[in-house]
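Researcher: Please predict.
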Amino acid sequence: MTIYELLDQLQVKHPNFEALNNLLTHFAYDEYTPDALIDLSHSLNEGVAKNFRLLVDRGEDVRQIEGQSKTWKHWNAVRESLTSDSIDAEFLKSLHAFFERVRNMRNKHGDLTHGHIGPKHYTSDREARFIFDLSLAHSRYVLACAEDVESEQIPYEKFPEFNDYLDEQGERLGRTPYSRLVYDHDYDRYVYELEEFNPDIYA
């Protein structure tokens, strides 16, 4: 399954993945300068890491994740989940250290340097394409793991009577019912409440 297909599936239930999908959908490989390609690689790496955290740990607060400027915190959280997939933890650690280097390149190299004073290092086209291809391959792997996590969860639509019951316990947010808010942001609690409501759920 391609990264585009994975994002299409994930964004059906998790609209936050739509931004990543748009990022890649409007991407034209040959039209990007090396500096812009580095910038895109960093955006992809960080976006995938943040969204993966939101998916595997539904207790995480979106504002807290967005407020963490150090991307290594996101990579640590990702590694804790991916090591269960039997991938070598040291390999992942080295790869994520490389992505931290990409983050620094994005901030200091070429024309997209956030106003840093020269002299500036300009990334070659070959180097930039290599970094982007590596970022794309890693992102596809992480998203495939995210799809596995999603498939292991109890479908929200499976227990409408329980959802109605849970809706009575709290207020909706806009058009989103309370049960959906609990499911999306505190999945462990959703499962606990469901098991209390229906002890024979796994019978």
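Model: The mean pLDDT is 79.
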